Amino acid sequence: MSWYNKFKSDSKKSASSYWYDDYNTSYDYLDEYSDLDSDTLKAFKKTNDLYKLSATRRAVANFVQIVTQKNIPVSFASKSDSKTDGEKVILSADVDDNFDVSVGLALHEGSHIVLSDFSLLSEMSSITDTIRYLRSNAAIQNKEAIENGYPIPYSDDYIDNAILQKIDGLKYKAGFAEMFTKSGKIGSKITINKEIETLVGQLTNWIEDRRIDQYIYNSAPGYRDYYSSMYDHYFNDKMITKGIASDEYTDETIDSYMFRIINLHNEETDLSKLKGLRAIYRLINLSNIERLKSTEDAFNLSIDVVAEILNHLELPDASGDEKQKGKGNGESDGETTESEDGEGSGESNGESDGDGNGSGINMDAIYF
Questions:
Q1: Is the pTM of this model over 0.85?
Q2: Which residues partner with 89 through β-bridges?
Q3: pLDDT digits (tens, 9 = 90+) for 10-29
Q4: Which residues have a Cβ under 8 Å from the Cβ of 196 and sit 6 or more positions away?
Q5: Strand, helix or coil for residue 91
Q6: Contacts of 334 (CB under 8 A, 6+ apart)
Q7: What is the predicted pLDDT for the residue at 237?
Q8: Across-strand partners of 322?
Q9: Per-residue confidence at 351, pLDDT binned at 50, 70, 90?
């Protein structure tokens, strides 16, 4: 049984049916037997629907308080991803008509507050801007030196040492060294830019989601049906399955890798669709995701995954021209995956989850 199937619900019955169905009654009786005129009945329904919506949202918000044991403010926003910064929670109002999914989202975001380390977000945001400025300033002065016939003042080793000094004392300095220095797993392949920064952030968020969901699933069996409903809603999607089975997202691009990775659980997943996807599948190892004990573990794993992706992308050289693809891992990419069903899950299907290009790390891409 795949990792995703642990979360997948085989029942049409709501997890909260034992109490919520009695409250969430229909208007069939009133429509059939009420002696109210149509305008009065319509006004009553509208008022009552607003009351039910408000009461339902309060009930959903209570689950955040339950899982965190804190008085965390919860708000609802239409056309928004659910997210938290550790101090407050925003839940998507697009699933107001699906109570179980909303509860699943509330539990998920609440568990981030309990289990995730938000210092990664602040450290990454500040250090990327600092390093970008350092590199930009060095590049300008090196260019001026070359134009004037002088030796360049800032070598790669000098910049690496400066970066190591900047990140010294940070909790996540080991990961930052892998990202930004020329000897790092990512830095040795490419001078990191906004796109790669965002990719690291997106994958960290996705892996962290899988880690905390597995933890809650294992430690709080009473919540499993809510998680099943959430996973069914976001991942048991016919359009996503159709896309996975198609020849779309089969070119070696960042978008293709993200689409294939965050849907590794899908029953139509074919690990031969992209070079290195099988190696990535093994790196992530969702069937043993509980081995990750911290946000730092998720961050370090995302760096390993990005390093593997970079083996198969066209990377720019120092002049900005494209060079040959990174060194591959030698695996065969022509095999089918009948014995290795893809795995994965979470509260987003990958259509959003952050794709902007702001200064430094795109914080929308790495929110928890």
A1: no
A2: 74, 84
A3: 555 555 554 454 445 555 65
A4: 186, 190, 306, 310
A5: strand
A6: 272
A7: 76
A8: 316
A9: very low
